[in-house]
Amino acid sequence: MFNKQLLNKFKNLDTPFYYYDLDILIKNISNLKSHLKKNNKVHFALKSNFNDKLLNIIKSSGLGIDAVSYNEIKKALEIGFSPNDIVFAGVGKTDSEIIYSLNKDISYLNCESFQEIKVINEISRNLKKTVSISIRINPSIETGTHKNIETGNKENKFGIDINEISHLLDMINDFNNISVVGFHFHLGSQIESDLPFLKLCKKANELNELFYNKRFNVKYINVGGGLSIDYEEPLNNSISDFRSFFQIFNNNLILKNNQEIHFELGRSIIGQCGFLVSKVLFTKKSFNKDFLIIDAGMNDLIRPALYNSTHKMINISSNSNKNKNYDIVGPICESSDIFARNYNLPLSSRDDYIVICSTGAYGESMSSNYNLRNSLKSYFSDTI
After folding, report:
1. Residue 46: helix, strand or coil by DSSP?
2. Do the Cβ atoms of 367 and 330 come closer than 8 Å?
3. Which of 255, 270, 285 is the last residue in one of the domains?
4. How many domains does the chain divide into?
């Protein structure tokens, strides 16, 4: 993939930068769509990447948007997504964000507490509107993923305690300015086992009966996302296994009255198409460690520092037949600015190009200007 021709193109660009292979993205979306049933709807998690060019590809594919802020809703509308294809989620919506979403007539709001539902009902009444909502439920399911990206366990801030749902439905039954159109879960990200999803289906079926018995005829069951990608061998496994993921829910959820299954996916759609391209500034030996100091830092890709995550790294310019273990670090004035420890690479030198793979999701979108560093530019396979 990273041949001499592409390397020569990289040499004309200032590093570090993000590089997106659009063929990977387009093939991945095509694979996703080929395994969707008619009653399935996918909303792309905008928080994973809000690059305009990528969003236009996603919009043209017919996917919707999962937004978690005013600016994400605004961005989706500017790109051209229909309000009916936008879902507004998030545990802490401000009044102004709620008002904006209602005035834009987005599809529905995922609500995460009784107080939030009450506030939305009051705001809707003042605006003389009836708003569609979905109730986010915390099912208390452990997933085995990193604790910082687990969102459906009882210790997490997200959703309403599953044991309180029956009482909640009784309390909101006389709220005249909301319409409960669905219920919603999200277990977490990068979940590598099917078991949590199977457990979720069982609980969703029980809740579907509860909603039905209390005369809430919901249209949507939103199961969130969580499908993992291969960070170890991304170049060999760039296409996500949507077939198996969708089958879990299509085969195990018991639907009523033409209900739909909604998904919110980010990483599994866009993660493998992105690469962070950097150069070696210096090599350094200190005590018993060999360091590669590259020009990309934790401000450009925070996942390794925040989640202790691992990314495959490639030296695309070294011709050495010898290898060495390096601690690969950035220039930021933080000891946590480390991309990998004891990582085996070909013998590397100043000005070598180091590519960090699988950075399409939560790379550019989580970057910052810490240390007053410049924001990175993005380049694309069709125009570079």
Report:
1. helix
2. no
3. 270
4. 2
Rounded CA-CA distance 377/20 in Å is: 11
Distance of CA 322 to the CA centre of its chain: 37
Find the domain containing 324 and state its range.
4-17+272-380
Nearest-angstrom CA–CA distance, 11 and 3: 13
Examine the domain organization and report whether 133 and 171 are in the same domain. yes
Strand positions, DSSP E, the chain? 17-20, 40-45, 64-67, 86-88, 108-111, 131-138, 160-161, 178-184, 220-222, 260-265, 274-286, 289-294, 313-315, 323-329, 338-346, 353-356, 378-380
pTM: 0.95
Residues 121 and 210 in one domain: yes
Instruction: Give DSSP secondary structure letters for 78-127.
Output: HHT--GGGEEE--S---HHHHHHHHHTT-SEEEE-SHHHHHHHHHHHHHT
Q: Which two tokens stand for residue 141?
A: 């399911």
Give pLDDT tens digits for 239-284: 999 999 999 999 999 999 899 999 999 999 999 999 999 999 999 9
Is the same domain home to 314 and 229? no
